[in-house]
Fold:
Amino acid sequence: MSEQRICTIEQLSDVLKKTVSERRFIHSVGVAQTTTMLLEYYGCTDYVKTWNGLEAGAFCGLAHDLAREMPGQALIEYCRNNGVELTDWEIKSPVLAHGKASAHMASLLAPGYPESWKKAIEAHTTGRNGLDDLAQALFVADFIEPSRTFLTEEKRRQYLAKASLTACEYAILCDMIAHWKEKGYHDASEGSLLLKRELEEKLGI
Ligand SMILES: [Fe+2]
Ligand SMILES: [Fe+2]
Structure:
């Protein structure tokens, strides 16, 4: 894959199709469409909209899970071999490293793509504070895109009824943290808690 370069969304879509399962491909197309929809729906302006003719929501949505199907140890090795720094949290739960690995894979396909797009892809797993509208939209889209069948239409409507993208992201983050706790997967990561506090500050909660 490192030899390939993409110039268009169609080419990125072709690479994705060859890299992940059909289910993941459908999810990623859903995330691309939903990210783009959210950015328009909430009238977002705080992000880099296009780069080299590529559109932010489409690019990040298609690229965000490029590494998602790599086994945990392979993900850790990929990051080590490519100089991608991991947090203790990611080393402990390697699946979380797929954000950073996917962002790195995207940089091989589209060298020099915007740093803010890279950060959005890196952070989509648990969210991260201090990022722009694109990162927020990608995080939300990953959770609510149409092929996510764990979500009822009613719940999806409730999220989209939020007055701002920040309020929508906050509702999802709170539900995710509650879900992790309930299922006993893991406690909220430090990053998720920092993001939660930042969103509460923004929302005046
Ligand atoms: Fe992901
Ligand atoms: Fe995803």
Observations:
- Strands lie at 50-51, 54-55.
- The CA atoms of residues 123 and 140 lie 12 Å apart.
